Amino acid sequence: MNSYSNLTDILEFDKEVLLNILNYSSDEIYILNRNLEIIYVNKMCEQHYGLRQNEIIGKHNDIFLEKGYWTPSIIPIVLEKNNTVTINQTTHTGKELVTTAIPIFNPINKNLDFIFITSREKNYISIIHNSTHELSSSEHLHSNGFITCDDEMTNIIDFSKKIAPVDTNILIQGESGTGKGVLAKYIHDLSNRKNGPFLAINCAAIPEELLESELFGYAAGAFTGALKNGKIGLLETANKGTIFLDEIGEISLKFQAKLLQVLQHRSFFSVGGRELKMADVRIITATNRNLLEMVKSKQFREDLFYRLNVIDIQIPPLRKRKKDIPLLADHFLTKFNHKYKVNRSFSSNVKNAFEVFQWPGNIRQLENIIERLVITSDSVIRLSDLPSQLIPDDQSISIYEENSLDNILEETEKKMIIESYKIHKSSRKVAKDLGLSQTKANKLIRKYCKSED
Looking at residue 35, which CATH number applies to its domain? Predict the structure, then answer.
């Protein structure tokens, strides 16, 4: 950029320099002509709507309004009042904006010439200060922290509130990653044992010999390598609290018999011990297996199954909670934006791809993928950034992406430049490889290959 030494020079700089300055604004700047055609928008549109400037400029405002990119529209209000107006808006990516529209009139005939609009995120200050406070829509974020608008999940939450104070055994069933542990902790926090410990143990992650000593504890000299004074088990540690046994379907028949003793008599022996100990705990179990089928095949004790299954809760998989996918995606995006001190946003069709995907790993998989995308993507997360498993083998990105030749050409250009630069690590060789001038190769490498340096 040129150097300007006085006010006259500054006022006479060219259009390109001015537009470049506007792109540094932390507010979105959006200008309409009298026909409500968009004549300018700065780069903040990418953060707010997941659209590039060239996808917006030149088009009629109503196109984006009808597609639901933001709501409500400020235009009818400013046209009616013929004065400056400020309202709250919500974008299709879930961002909450404070938007101000200023009508600009022709000084001669007093007719409307332009509408100058600025938008800023409601939580702008918290973003700047890297706050961990997350804003959420109250109708979707329940007071318990569950993010859902799914009817079945809402019913499960309401049901959990009813059974939490009743000190009985609960079996939570659902696929891996659906939030069984979160629900177990929620029930504990609402129970009469909320002031006691909540201890969770994954039965599949610990060898059975160690699992037994962890749960029941052991007496002095119980086995080689045992502590001199023995060890207190989780059943004693969780006294007057709750123990959550995850993956209960993985324990052996031998261990099942010992667990049944605890459930029937609320008592147990530590490993190698002779003293009968009492267990004042609530036991919540969870599994991703079909325990009833395991009972039929003699892999799981029938008496234990019915002891555990006094209250049964079935958590639906994420693929059956389609409405929750964009809500959860926005929640995790906000979480990892704060964690990594960035401000990523989703492009217009990334959430469509999320909703099409079956999510075999459920919420845990969605969270992990969004963390990866926040780390590896540029300011706008696009379909080309998604892991290959999220796009069906028989589909191409262009099916999901907007029908824009500019989009397709730019994504192709980006892919070719990155792949060539990974191989050659030299702008001269990239230029030769792709038939470009070295000047253009240098420019494109700077544009697309920052993360490769």
Answer: 3.30.450.20
